[in-house]
Amino acid sequence: MTNRRQRLLRQTKVSCQRADPMPKPIAKSKRVSTARVNRIIQKPGPYEGGPNLADQAYQAVLQALFDRTIPGGAEFTQAELMRRLGLTAQPLRDALRTLETEGLVTIHARSCIRFIRADLELSRDTYHFRSLIERAGARALAEKGDAAEIRRLADDHEALLARLEGGEWGPDEEASLDSLEDRLHGGLISALRNPLIETTARRLKNYVTLVRLDWLTTRPLAIRTVREHLDIVNACAERDADAAEAALASHFQLALQRLIGMM
C-alpha cells in the first residue's frame, strides 16, 4: 500500500509540472514582435527614403492611372503590375487593397485586377457626391469662415481674372487657376471641421482627377471658372449662406456640363 501511495504521489507531481498552471509573461514576446516589424519596414525596397512602402506603392499606382501608364478599365495580373510599376509584391498588395476599398480597382482572386473606367456615369456620380459635401461647406464658410481669408481669396481671383481678361494665358495663369481651385474647394471642406468628411474628400479628389484627364482648359473656360468661383466667394464675404450654396451648386452643374461636352 505504501509503494502504491508513493507512485500516485510521483504521478501527481509530474502531472502538475506538465500542466504549468502559472501563465507565462507576454511582455517579452510583444517586444520581439515589434522589433521584427520594425526590421521589416526598414528593409530597402524599390523606393528609398520613405517610411511606408505601401503608401509609396499606393501613390505609384495612382500616378500610373493619372498619366495613363495604366489605362482606365484595363486588367492586369499582379505580376504584370509589378513589372510595369517596379513594385514588390507586398507593398503592391497593400496598395491594391486600399484602392479597392476606395472603389478604384476590383480584385478578382487568382485572375486579375481591373481598374475603374472614367465614363459618363462616374463623372455624374463624382460631381453629385462632391456637390452634396461642398454645398454644406459653402454654407459653413459663409456663416463662420475667416473674413480675412475670404477677402484674400476674392482678391486673388480678381487679380487672375484681370490678367485673363487682358489676354494673358499660359503656364503661370494655369498654375494660378489650379491653386485657386484647391484653395477654394479645400476651404469649403475645411469649413465643415469634420475629419471624416476631409478623408472622404481626399479620396473623392482622385475621382475628380480621373474624370478630368481629358479636360482642356482654355482662356475663355478659365474666365468662366474664375467668375463662377467669385460668385461663391463674394456670397461668403457677404455672409449670404443661401447665395453661396446656390452659386456652388450652379458651378458644379456647369462644370459637369463642360466635362460631358469634352467626352
Gist of the model:
The chain has helices at residues 2-19, 27-42, 53-66, 78-85, 89-101, 120-144, 147-165, 171-190, 195-211, 219-237, 241-261, and strands spanning 75-76, 105-108, 112-115.
Any overview of this molecule?
Strands 1-3-2 form a three-stranded antiparallel sheet. The chain is elongated, with a radius of gyration of 29 Å. It has helices at 2-19, 27-42, 53-66, 78-85, 89-101, 120-144, 147-165, 171-190, 195-211, 219-237, 241-261, and strands at residues 75-76, 105-108, 112-115. 72% of the residues lie in helices and 4% in strands. Residues 11-51 have low confidence and may be disordered. The protein is built from eleven helices and three strands; from the N terminus they run H-H-H-E-H-H-E-E-H-H-H-H-H-H. It folds into two domains: 45-115, Orthogonal Bundle (Arc Repressor Mutant, subunit A); 120-261, GntR ligand-binding domain-like (Four Helix Bundle (Hemerythrin (Met), subunit A)). Helix 7 (147-165) packs antiparallel against helix 8. It has 263 residues and is mainly α.
- Give the overall form: elongated
Low-pLDDT sequence parts: 11-51
Oligomer: single chain
Order of helices and strands: HHHEHHEEHHHHHH
Question: What name does CATH use for the topology of the largest domain?
Answer: Four Helix Bundle (Hemerythrin (Met), subunit A)
Tally of DSSP helical segments: 11
Second rung of CATH, namely the architecture of the largest domain: Up-down Bundle
First CA to last CA: what distance?
Answer: 98 Å
> What is the CATH homology-level superfamily of the largest domain?
GntR ligand-binding domain-like
Rg? 29 Å
What is the makeup of the main sheet? 3 strands, antiparallel
Determine the strand fraction and express it as a percent band. under 5%
- CATH domain class name of the largest domain: Mainly Alpha
* Strand elements, count: 3
Q: What level of helicity do the residues show?
A: over 70%
